[in-house]
From TrEMBL, chain A:
One of its GO terms (cellular component) is membrane. It is a multi-pass membrane protein. The keyword Oxidoreductase does not apply. Residues 1159-1169 have a biased composition (Polar residues). GO terms for molecular function: ATP binding; magnesium ion binding; phosphatidylcholine flippase activity. This is Phospholipid-transporting ATPase. PROSITE patterns: ATPASE_E1_E2. InterPro entries: ATPase_P-typ_cyto_dom_N, ATPase_P-typ_P_site, ATPase_P-typ_TM_dom_sf, ATPase_P-typ_transduc_dom_A_sf, HAD-like_sf, HAD_sf, P-type_ATPase_IV, P-type_ATPase_N. PANTHER family: PHOSPHOLIPID-TRANSPORTING ATPASE FETA, PROBABLE PHOSPHOLIPID-TRANSPORTING ATPASE. It holds the Pfam family PhoLip_ATPase_C. It is found in: Endomembrane system; Membrane. Its EC number is 7.6.2.1. Belongs to the cation transport ATPase (P-type) (TC 3.A.3) family. Type IV subfamily.
Automatic annotation (TrEMBL), chain B:
This is Cell cycle control protein. Keywords: Glycoprotein, Membrane, Transmembrane, Transmembrane helix. Pfam families: CDC50. It comes from Grus japonensis (Japanese crane). InterPro entries: CDC50/LEM3_fam.
Length: 1178, 302
């Protein structure tokens, strides 16, 4: 995508303003706007080979090997045959090339799928089916219900009254409630009259494409008049049309210019920190190599001058070499070729194979398979595994990730009695699970079959016509702004602005108070089978200050009642003093509900006096038509009437968490992972979820809430929070402050700071926008990273990515982002590791993720088991690999001093070729595919085992230096022990054995046995495969050696196998074996001793845990922990409400009423006739 | 209200289960041996290895002490010859020198005679590859393709047999050993065959096939530093002549280090020498060759 955008950006000047005319392709074409096709693929058939090769050679390693190959082709310096490099290089290029080709093919396929979706376009007065990609800016297209929006459109007209259009924006911002868009009146008149639409020639001027989802400004010029356009009139790509039969739209932005695509962030090639470290190390090694080669080259220069000059009698200088220094220069390159085996190409191949293998384990894990929607876990990127073992920050989406996005009416308190819990005979509360008996709602044929409730006593109360209970449910069925939809008789679907409201109305419906239909003035409710029509007199709508909503209705009997629901804190102030005792009981229940993480509302009612109400409604009418201070006047009036309410009870709604979320979060927290929740949802909901999944709890010292609306406010709030957490972080003596002082430019990495307790931080999107700017960035990072938990609410997709980017930038930590919707895509792409929740409707998150699975709880297995193993395996692999190649290569260095610095290799050329490829590749691969220090159960039980990974303890520069030193030590032993054993030695039969070939064989056999023993020491989990690989590799070595050194091979390939007979003649000598034994002992014993003593004398925390596990293993294994997280919070909930203004005004205006619904009574304003019609139904 | 997780696939064939196999391999539950470093294993292995090394060491020291060895550096003793050679016009003049030494004790058993060279870089990379194994196998090959240069052909195009720097620089001092017993001088009988590896003698080196050796090497010339062509290396023994000459084979097995010893002769155990070399005075009779100009060389008897 970015590639595409870039290309276009280059082609034309940066777009300042967009100008287009409807139905005028010729006019619009002159601006060269992008059309609606998207391209995420990189290559086509012809560009694949050159582009791919070009990309591959950009990797340092590949370029290096190409360089080596060229060196080897120069005869003067070629110290090794060319095939030693060419074969592996071609292999590597081919494998990654094929992989890239397959990936790109899949991208082509998905692009094609999206681009070929059909849509109806208005062309020459006719609606034609066109493919998405052929849509141009300025086209008019028709969308139908449940269609995806094709491009960013200006809404022209729709089937609904007042040209309203309902859309769902879940893919865009993760909010699942419906949103309403409304067209300009002037375009709404067009309707679906194709003639008029074709003649429509409005000109639109608007801003250039950008990524701001909630902002749009432009003007429409039609017949000389100008109309302002804003975001309320835009349908954005990525949304879905709901509840709207059809609508017409004018394409404003298409394809890559759409806000969705502009928001999708850059696709960056992800590399792991080990990759980056490896690149650094490879450079260090190159420097080291260059130094060694320099030493040897200088040595050669001196030698040629001092000794070689005389030796010329026997060995004249090579052609073209006329001085010792030139010989030294050539020798430098010869040694580069010989010593390059420290970083062999097989290192890169093996790393890829290991990652691939460990990725397969993730795909294969049955414990990460979700039966319910048949989804196994999937490692979509196979190159990031070990990073999973180093995660320090998790950025999680809320909706659909932590929660299931299902609201359930779970409990309630009616008139001082709590319902919802199930008790057994002895009065013990029973855990509700799938087997618990559900309440039977068969008495009510309008009930929603999906609704589940377990407490039978509530149904009994309803059936017994308990007055408060009836009133309670009546309130729930009346006091809301839900829109019903009844396409088929009895099949009611509620369109709620917030899922909480939907849940409440659904609950009332199931208990026998079915909200069936509404008109601007009436609400039809089927109460226990009897249709009643209430007159809706006023809706006192919800807003964020009031935190409550009320309706005033007149019942068929003529009673005037005000029903109110709202947040407990607010409503309790408005209650009549007569309900004080009830208030106390209800408070108790509320605390209980809140303790379980439920979202609560208090409900109350009040009977109104006719006379007073008439007066009030008159004043209300005046206020609502007032020109000045309308809002204030209205809220004053609302407050006046909403008082002395009578308490009815409370509702508790469960925002259903996914299974195992609190346990997972607890485990991850123990593993020292910080969890940040980034959600588009409102603050209360986000905090409530924070409490219910144990992110926030009452044990925390404090939860800071940052909601400032200016830059200064935000700064102050952040500073205050930090002051409280760590007062001395403001002193000049603070390390970080000193660091700030010292360097004029902002520091790159901020070290971790310890707070004096456990804190949480909640920040709203608005404040976040300020906090992410310029110098506040640092404040935000310092403050937020001191907190255990951070919750960001009301954030846009791009902000999510920015937050991740921020942490990536200032913290030397590995980040993971997990989400399920299109709004998480940018953060998933930005984080080091992106995880998508799969098996749900939207696939964007999964498609851009690196790993995907169906349930949040699998995250702990992914990190603590797979991640940890992958990390440990990779580290062990690298440690061993560098060791074995240092030990292997440096022997040449020492030999240089004894062979006139002539780039003579110690080993047989074939051994050099096969060493990394055959002899030592499989044992180390076996280790890095099978090794487990502790099994999965223990790694989950002791999350602290994860910590070394975060601190990058198992492979870093120090560890590398240690490997290097060990390698150097081994190479010394491996050279000088054979040297000592060979020097002037003769066999027992008097024949010579100190020849070059015997020495080579002895040195290489020693080396191979030493590295095999070393891998045996490193392997802590010997499966059959490991045994086979280790013993197999040794036997293969001897088999191949004896074969290559055999008479037959020599007689056939004389030039290639000059070592004929060496194996037989040398390996039959006891002194050779004794020398080998000595070198093995000297290489291995110190390592064993060091490791043993270190674990005994200076055990790391991990060693201690491992010891604990070892002891625990002797006892029978503990049962898997099945404790229920008991929450003790007494905090009172985030109330269950939408964050926007309600639909109240819309409903009262009747603008969204449909005149033609077949079953409902809406739209026709003769309630009486309907009443009779309905009664006839029962 | 939209429920995101309510999607449940239909049961049956339409949706085959994607549940991974429950195999030990795929679930990473392969049975395994999990060795650990415990006090017992570490200490016992240390002691066992220590004991083994100690006993082997004692045995080795004892057996080394029983070996009698005499080493004589004759580079200085033959300094006249080397001075003579410094003037290159004298390169083909014969030069002899004598080196006396005394054995205080008998050397019993098989007695070997080695020549040793110091600072002779047989392990130099370009030296090591400067040979043609195919040529030494008696094959008619184009040695231009080998690494023999510059010892490949003469200017007139005659190829050298054997080619290459190794062959050219072959050690060709001729050494005889005399036993001075009561003013009579007895030549010690020396074996010049059976000194090389069986594989070298029988597999790696073969003469070109022809009715006789000199015709087999027809069309080739000796290497520049040699005094006689390859088919005259041992005129007495057909099976020790040409490429399969033991002295040549041993020389061609290049040494790993710049200081080395090669087996030259074995004492033939007959007459007085049946049990080895008896104590007494001996003389080496060395006919000095061109090779000897630069490196130090020695003779060893053991």
């Amino acid at each position: 995508m970015s590639l595409f955008g870039l290309k276009f950006g280059k082609k034309k000047l940066k777009e300042e303003e967009r100008q287009l005319q409807a139905n005028n392709r010729d006019f619009n074409l002159q601006f060269e706007y992008a059309n609606n096709s998207i391209k995420t693929s990189k290559y086509n058939f012809f560009t694949f080979l050159p582009l791919n090769l070009f990309e591959q050679f950009q990797r340092i390693a590949n370029a290096y090997f190409l360089f080596l190959l060229i060196l080897q082709l120069i005869p003067q310096i070629s110290s090794l045959a060319w095939f030693t490099t060419v074969v592996p290089l071609v292999l590597v290029l081919a494998v990654s090339g094929v992989k890239d080709a397959i990936d790109d093919f899949n991208r082509h396929k998905s692009d094609k799928h999206v681009n070929n979706r059909p849509v109806q376009v208005l062309i020459n007065g006719m609606l034609k089916d066109e493919k998405w990609m052929n849509i141009q800016v300025g086209d008019i297209i028709k969308l139908e219900n449940n269609n995806f929006v094709t491009a960013d459109l200006l809404l022209l007209s729709s089937s609904e009254p007042h040209s309203l259009t309902y859309i769902e924006t879940a893919e865009l911002d993760g909010e699942t409630n419906l949103k309403v868009k409304q067209a300009l009146t002037v375009t709404a008149e067009l309707g679906e009259d194709l003639q008029k639409l074709t003649e429509f020639n409005g000109e639109v001027k608007c801003e250039a494409p950008n990524n701001k989802l909630d902002k749009f400004t432009g003007t429409l010029t039609l017949r000389g008049e100008k109309y302002a356009l804003d975001n309320e009139k835009m349908l954005l790509r990525g949304c879905t049309i709901r509840n709207t039969e059809w609508c017409f739209g004018l394409v404003i932005y298409a394809g890559p210019d759409t806000k969705l695509m502009q928001n999708s962030g850059k696709t960056t090639f992800k590399r792991t920190s080990i990759d980056r470290l490896m690149n650094v190390l490879v450079l260090v090694i190159f420097a080291f190599l260059a130094l060694m080669c320099l030493i040897l080259a200088i040595g050669n220069g001196i030698w040629e001058y001092d000794k070689g000059y005389y030796f010329q009698v026997y060995l004249p200088w090579a052609e073209g070499v006329n001085s010792a220094s030139y010989s030294g220069f050539l020798m430098f390159w010869s040694y580069v070729i010989i010593l390059n085996t420290v970083v062999p190409i097989s290192l890169y191949v093996s790393v890829e194979i290991i990652r691939l293998g460990n990725s397969f384990y993730i795909d294969w894990d049955r414990k990460m398979y979700y039966l319910l929607n048949n989804t196994p876990a999937q490692a979509r990127t196979t190159t990031l595994n070990e990073e999973l073992g180093q995660i320090k920050y998790i950025f999680s989406d809320k909706t659909g990730t932590l929660t299931q996005n299902i609201m359930c009416f779970n409990k309630c308190s009616i008139n001082g009695k709590a319902y919802g819990d199930v008790y057994d005979m002895s009065g013990q509360r029973i855990e509700i699970n799938e087997n618990t008996e559900k309440v039977d709602f068969s008495y009510n044929h309008l009930a929603d079959p999906k609704f589940a409730f377990y407490d039978h006593s509530l149904v009994e109360a309803v059936k017994l016509s308990d007055v408060p209970t009836h009133r309670f449910f009546r309130l729930l069925s009346l006091c809301h702004t839900v829109m019903p939809e009844e396409k088929k008789e009895g099949n009611l679907v509620y369109q709620a602005q917030s899922p909480d409201e939907g849940a409440l109305v659904t609950a009332a419906r199931n208990f026998g108070f079915v909200f069936r239909a509404r008109t601007p003035e009436t609400i039809t409710v089927v109460e226990m089978g009897e249709t009643k029509i209430y007159k809706l007199l006023a809706i006192l709508d919800f807003n964020n200050v009031r935190k409550r909503m009320s309706v005033i209705v007149r019942s068929p009997e003529g009673d005037l009642t005000l029903y109110c629901k709202g947040a407990d804190t607010i409503l309790y102030e408005l209650l009549h003093s007569s309900c004080d005792s009830l208030k106390e009981e209800t408070t108790e229940h509320l605390n209980e509900f809140a303790g379980e993480g439920l979202r609560t509302l208090v409900v109350a009612y009040k009977n109104l006096d006719e006379g007073y109400f008439q007066d009030w409604i008159r004043r209300h009418h005046e206020a609502s038509t007032a020109l000045e201070g309308r809002e204030d006047k209205l809220s004053e009036l609302y407050e006046e009437i909403e008082k002395d309410l009578l308490l009815l009870g409370a509702t508790a709604i469960e925002d259903k968490l996914q299974d195992g979320v609190p346990q997972t979060i607890e485990t991850l927290a123990k593993a020292n992972i910080k969890i940040w929740v980034l959600t588009g949802d409102k603050q209360e909901t986000a905090m409530n979820i924070g409490y219910s999944c144990n992110l926030l709890n009452d044990d925390m010292e404090d939860v800071f809430i940052i909601e400032g609306s200016t830059s200064d406010d935000v700064l102050n709030e952040l500073r205050n929070a930090r002051k409280k957490m760590k007062p001395d972080s403001f002193l000049d003596s603070d390390e970080i402050n000193i660091q700030f002082e010292k360097s004029s430019k902002p520091p790159k990495i901020i070290p971790d700071e310890q707070a004096n307790g456990v804190y949480g931080l909640v920040i709203t999107g608005h404040s976040l926008a300020y906090a992410l700017e310029g110098n506040l960035e640092l404040e935000l990072v310092r403050t937020a990273c001191m907190c255990k938990v951070v919750i960001c609410c009301r954030v846009t997709p791009l902000q999510k990515a920015q937050v991740v980017e921020l942490v990536k930038k200032y913290k030397k930590a590995v980040t993971l982002a997990i989400g399920d919707g299109a709004n998480d895509v940018s953060m998933i792409k930005t984080a080091h590791i992106g995880v998508g929740i799969s098996g749900q409707e939207g696939m964007q998150a999964v498609l851009s993720s690196d790993f995907s699975f169906a349930q949040f709880r699998y995250l702990q297995r992914l990190l603590l088991v797979h991640g940890r193993w992958s990390y440990i395996r990779m580290c062990k692999f690298l440690k061993y690999f560098f060791y074995k190649n240092f030990a292997f290569t440096l022997v040449h260095f020492w030999y240089g001093f004894f062979s006139g610095f002539s780039a003579q290799t110690v080993y047989d050329e074939w051994f050099i070729t096969l060493y990394n490829l055959v002899y030592t590749s499989l044992p180390v691969l076996g280790m890095s595919l099978f090794d487990q220090d502790v099994d999965d159960r223990w790694s989950m039980l002791f999350p602290q085992l994860y910590v070394p990974g975060q601190q990058n303890l198992y492979f870093n520069k120090t560890v590398f230096v240690k490997c290097m030193l060990q390698g150097i030590y081994s190479s010394l032993i491996l050279f000088f022990i054979p040297y000592g054993a060979m020097y002037n030695t003769i066999r027992s039969d008097g024949k010579a054995i100190a020849d070059y070939q015997s020495f080579a064989l002895m040195a290489q056999t020693c080396l191979l046995i030493v590295v095999s023993v070393q891998i045996g020491l490193d392997t802590s989990y010997w499966t059959v495969v490991n045994q086979f690989f280790i013993w197999g590799s040794l036997s293969v070595y001897f088999a191949i050696t004896f074969t290559m050194y055999s008479d037959g091979m020599y007689l056939i390939f004389t030039a290639s196998f000059p070592f004929v007979g060496t194996a037989r003649n040398t390996l039959s000598q006891p002194n050779v074996w004794l020398a080998m034994f000595l070198s093995i002992t000297l290489c291995v014993l110190p390592v064993v001793g060091f490791r043993f003593l270190k674990a005994q004398l200076k055990p790391t925390p991990t060693d201690k845990v491992l010891l604990k596990i070892k002891e625990a293993k002797k006892r029978p294994p503990p049962p898997s922990p099945k404790r229920r997280l008991r929450r003790t919070s007494t905090r009172r909930s985030g109330y269950a409400f939408s964050h926007q203004h309600g639909f109240g005004a819309l409903i009262m205006s009747g603008r969204n009423m449909r005149p033609k619904s077949p079953f409902a009574t809406t739209g026709t304003f003769s309630p009486n006739s309907d009443k009779y019609k309905h009664k006839g139904l029962y | 209200m939209k429920s995101k997780t309510s999607f449940i696939p239909q049961e049956g064939e339409a949706h085959p289960s994607r549940c991974p196999d429950n195999s030990a391999f795929k679930q990473q539950k392969l049975p395994a041996w999990k060795p650990q470093l415990t006090i017992a294993t570490v200490l016992s292995s240390f002691f066992l290895i220590g004991a083994f090394c100690l006993s082997v060491g004692v045995c080795l020291i004892l057996s080394t002490n029983s070996v009698r060895e005499i080493q004589i550096d004759y580079s200085d003793k033959c300094s006249d010859c080397s001075k003579l050679r410094e003037n290159s016009s004298n390169w083909n003049k014969e030069c002899h020198c004598f080196v006396n030494f005394t054995l205080n004790e008998d050397i019993l058993g098989d007695v070997f005679m080695y020549y040793g060279l110091q600072n002779f870089y047989q392990n130099h990379r370009r030296y090591v590859i400067s040979r043609s194994d195919a040529q030494l196998l008696g094959r008619n090959v184009n040695i231009q393709k080998s690494y023999c240069a510059p010892f490949t052909t003469y200017q007139n195009g005659t190829p050298m047999a054997p080619c290459g720097a190794i062959a050219n620089s072959m050690f060709n001092d001729t050494i005889h050993l005399f036993y001075n017993l009561n003013s009579s001088v007895i030549q010690v009988p020396l074996l010049k065959t059976g000194n090389s590896w069986w594989t070298d003698k029988n597999v790696k080196f073969r003469n070109p096939k022809s009715y006789n050796l000199s015709s087999a090497f027809a069309g080739t010339a000796r290497p520049p530093y040699w005094q006689k062509p390859v088919y005259l290396l041992d005129e007495e023994d057909e099976r020790n002549n040409g490429y399969v000459n033991d002295d040549f084979i041993i020389w061609m097995r290049v040494s790993a280090f710049a200081t080395f010893r090669n087996l030259y002769r074995r004492v033939r155990r007959i007459r007085q020498f049946a049990d080895g070399l008896p104590a007494g005075n001996y003389t080496f009779h060395i006919s000095y060759s061109i090779l000897s100009c630069y490196p130090r060389h020695s003779l060893t008897i053991r």
